[in-house]
Design goal:
alpha/beta; globular; 11 helices; seven-stranded mixed beta sheet; six-stranded mixed beta sheet; binds zinc ion
């Protein structure tokens, strides 16, 4: 059992047949069960096995807490709610309309993943408006028999929120604390469309203000060296953002820049990790997409053409 604290655990969704890529949080208490980021529909069976292993049945599940609406975090939500319409889904207010009508979200993901959409993610079904609870950040919510503080934590996504359980010291931070497998390189996931380096720094401050004992990362798992981890994240974010800007200001096409960026990043990650761990990072975050997100950020700021 992957236990974080009493009543708090996680399931490895074995995304794409690999362990340590996508984790779903489980919160169990007298007030029922909450699931944090159920993951994509392609992993729903693995999630169900994880629930069973923890003695959870779907009628026990009252809430799904979404950190953000990206497919690897929120994809299965609509499918779950269709089968179990008693479940309430908490999501940032900017994500609400995309959960009600995911057409645009699916279109933009299809531009990236094309014919691999179905294999990678499976269905992204709409969630009825009545099942959604809109969050702004700053509120307290009851779920899984405990009280969570909610913070708006943009940077990776403009609609990203994080959840903190003060009683255990565990913060579910989605992608805001980056991707980190086996204590290796702390990779800032920077896919398009709404990377914001400054906002990301402020979000990290918001998380630090909770003084969490544990950060629960979707990719992958618990981190207890909270401050050094977040310091590495911001260091690496500034480094990769700088790499992208230098490439944008040099001659070349975006495709060439994307490949050059991916090569540099692969090199950095490899300095700290084994070949098979590096391969897991690529499943969690394709490096070329990370360049596109940073390129879009710099162009929006007017720092590159
Ligand atoms: Zn994401």
């Amino acid at each position: 059992m992957n236990t974080l604290s009493h009543g708090l655990s996680w399931v490895d969704l074995q995304f794409s047949g690999r362990s340590q890529v996508v984790a779903t949080g489980l919160v169990q208490g007298h007030g029922g069960v909450a699931i944090v980021d159920p993951g994509p529909t392609s992993c729903l069976q693995t999630l169900e096995l994880g629930l069973q292993a923890n003695g959870i049945r779907w009628p026990d599940v009252r809430h799904v807490l979404l950190t953000h609406i990206h497919l690897d975090h929120a994809g299965a939500t609509g499918t779950i709610v269709r089968e179990h319409p008693h479940i309430k889904v908490l999501v940032h207010e900017r994500g609400v309309k995309h959960m009600i009508d995911p057409t645009k979200l699916i279109e933009s993901a299809t531009r990236i993943y094309r014919d691999r959409m179905d294999t990678l993610w499976g269905e992204f079904a709409a969630v009825p408006a009545n099942n959604l609870v809109s969050l702004a950040g700053g509120e307290r919510v009851e779920a899984g028999g405990r009280t969570f503080d909610v913070a708006h934590t943009p940077g990776h996504a403009s609609h990203h929120v994080s959840y903190f359980d003060g009683s255990s010291g565990v913060a579910f931070v989605g992608d805001t604390a980056g991707v980190c497998i086996n204590g290796g390189y702390v990779l800032p996931p920077t896919p398009p469309p709404d990377i914001d380096v400054e906002a990301w720094g402020q979000s990290v401050d918001r998380i630090l203000a909770w003084s969490p004992a544990t950060l629960m990362l979707t990719h992958f798992g618990p981190v207890t060296s909270v401050r050094p981890h977040l310091a590495s994240l911001l260091d690496n974010l500034h480094t990769t953002a700088g790499m992208a800007l230098a490439l944008l200001n040099a001659p070349g096409t975006d495709e060439e820049r994307g490949s050059a960026f991916a090569e540099k990043l692969r090199h950095k990650v490899r300095e700290q990790m084994t070949e098979s761990e590096v391969a897991t990072y690529v499943v969690a975050a394709a490096y070329e997409h990370l360049f596109s997100g940073l390129a879009r950020y710099w162009r929006k700021k007017g720092a590159a053409t």
